[in-house]
Amino acid sequence: MSFNYESCSEEELWKYVASELTRNNVDVILVGGAVVSVYTEGAYKSGDLDFVLNDFVRTKLNPVMAMLGFTQRGRYYKHPKCEHLFIEFASFPASIGDDYNIEPLEVEHEGQCLKIFSPTDCVRDRLASYAYFSARECLDQAVMVAKKHPINFEKVKSWCKQEKIEKKYEDFISELQK
């Protein structure tokens, strides 16, 4: 079966690439804006996929990405037929602010176990970008996800308190109530 790189969504590319990486013993977690795209069913478009390599070894990554037709350009991987999306890999471990105890959601896809930030962790991740990079659009993304999926609000609130960004949580709740 041939994959349609020309018009794939973030979710379709995630499932395809993550499945192939998993089949080849490269353990990754989808993080960042592409998670928002998945949880909003494409209402938000990120333009890239950010994966965290869930181990310390990158040696298996390049051969699998090359097999899929991707070439590395600096810290990004591009496919010649996928002009609208690129992929980036961050090093282990996955974290949100100072929280390194991340338990990704596991999604079964075509016999593979794919990993992605949970909706709650996606909201925390977006609030971190809102707080630390003044990225107002990330607040909007957190709200979009929270409106579509159950969120552990106590976990988000507690994390914001630990990160000393309680005001950002208040902004989030205010926007969510609009």
Key attributes of the depicted protein:
about 180 residues, alpha/beta, Beta Polymerase, domain 2, 2 domains, seven-stranded mixed β-sheet, 7 helices, 7 strands, about 15% strand
CATH hierarchy, class of the largest domain: Alpha Beta
Low-confidence stretches: none
Order of helices and strands: HEHEHEEEEEHHHH
Give me the count of strands: 7
Average pLDDT score: 94
Structural Rg: 16 Å
Instruction: Record the strand order, biggest sheet.
Output: 3-4-5-2-1-7-6
The biggest beta sheet is recorded as: 7 strands, mixed
Q: What is the terminal separation in angstroms?
A: 45 Å
**Structural class computed from helices and strand pairing:** alpha/beta
CATH fold-level name of the largest domain = Beta Polymerase, domain 2
The CATH architecture assignment of the largest domain turns out to be: 2-Layer Sandwich
Binned, the helix content reads 40-55%
Number of domains as seen in the coordinates: 2
- Content of β-strand: 15-25%
Write down the overall geometry: globular
Topology diagram in text:
Blueprint: H1 10-23, E1 28-31, H2 33-39, E2 48-53, H3 61-67, E3 71-73, E4 76-78, E5 86-90, E6 105-109, E7 112-116, H4 119-133, H5 136-148, H6 153-163, H7 166-176
Parallel strand pairs: 1-7, 2-5
Antiparallel strand pairs: 1-2, 3-4, 4-5, 6-7
Give structural notes:
This protein has 178 residues and is of the alpha/beta class. The chain has two domains: 10-116, Beta Polymerase, domain 2 (2-Layer Sandwich); 119-176. It is built from seven helices and seven strands. Strands 3-4-5-2-1-7-6 form a seven-stranded mixed β-sheet. Helix 4 packs parallel to helix 6, helix 5 (136-148) crosses helix 7 and helix 6 (153-163) runs antiparallel to helix 7 (166-176). The longest helix has 15 residues, at 119-133. 37% of the residues are buried.
